[in-house]
Amino acid sequence: MTAQAEASTTIVARRTPWWRKALRSWQLYVLLTPAVAYVLVFKYWPMFGAQIAFRDYNPVDGFTGSPWVGLEHFTRFVESFQFERLMVNTLTVNALGLLVAFPVPIVLALMVNQLAGDRFKKFTQTVLYALSFISVVVVVGMIFLLFSPRSGIVNNAITAFGGDPVFFMGSPEWFRPLYIGSDIWQNAGFSMIVYLAALTAIDPALHEAARVDGANKWQRMWHIDIPGILPVITILFILAIGNLFNLGFEKVLLMQTDLNLPTSEVIQTYVYKTGLQGAQFSYSAAIGLFNSLINLALLLTFNWVARRANKTSLW
Predict the structure, then answer these.
(1) Considering the entire predicted model, what is its pTM?
(2) Burial level of 79, CB count in 10 A (0-12/13-18/19+)?
(3) Residue 60: what pLDDT?
(4) Are residues 139 and 38 in the same domain?
(5) CATH number assigned to the domain comprising residue 178
(6) How far from 256 is each of 136, 266, 286, CA to CA, in Å?
(7) Domain limits at 130?
(8) Where is the protein localized (predicted)?
């Protein structure tokens, strides 16, 4: 009788309409509604305007009334003399940033996790991630002041040792180091929090057993901590690859000067200049869509590779 009752209960549960199940947990759906509305209105609805990338858009005729030109704007961008420079600049800055900046929060998290004393550990965390609350405008202003060829503290130190002042913000070769270095200084502490949270999920019994076996801090870090946060590292790395052709538009634009444009002109700033300043709406929309498709392809590719390599992926 018990088996029959369980079977009948299972059949009834399977036949229960979805709306009845939703009514049982209506409070959760009410809480979910604002988030869903936000995604639909601000993420999916604007995709309707992406069609101007395939049209010769003008505000009078609107989205659907403008003439259809197909891939003309995409072809124009790929064949333009700006294409190679924009792709190289965008990829170089992001790739160097990924290689240099991505491991820094991991190292910081491992080091902070080994600190003795809760007060000192909390103080160190606060000092490291407080920098992320500084505005990008303020950070770029600090860069201009610190590296000024006349009054900057860096050039003052160079001249004090007998060197010649360097116009850092006017030198194309210095744009990438300054951008990546300031990004690490500002954002590494905030990114560290994710890895610290992952480290707290590691079973303390593993460390206790390793101590009993005579393992030192470096051995426990290498054989327990790093493998324990490896899935989180993989997920964040996949997401970073998905943004390989995306840069912080505001910071790049603020750091740009007429002299460093050969290395500082990236896809995002070029879209801004051609779209808003040059009023070439369809052309700039095509460039932005092209950039998004590349990021999507990279995300799907590396997600597939990660799933095949270590069974950890976004989906």
Answers:
(1) 0.83
(2) exposed
(3) 84
(4) no
(5) 1.10.3720.10
(6) 14, 10, 24
(7) 72-310
(8) Cell membrane
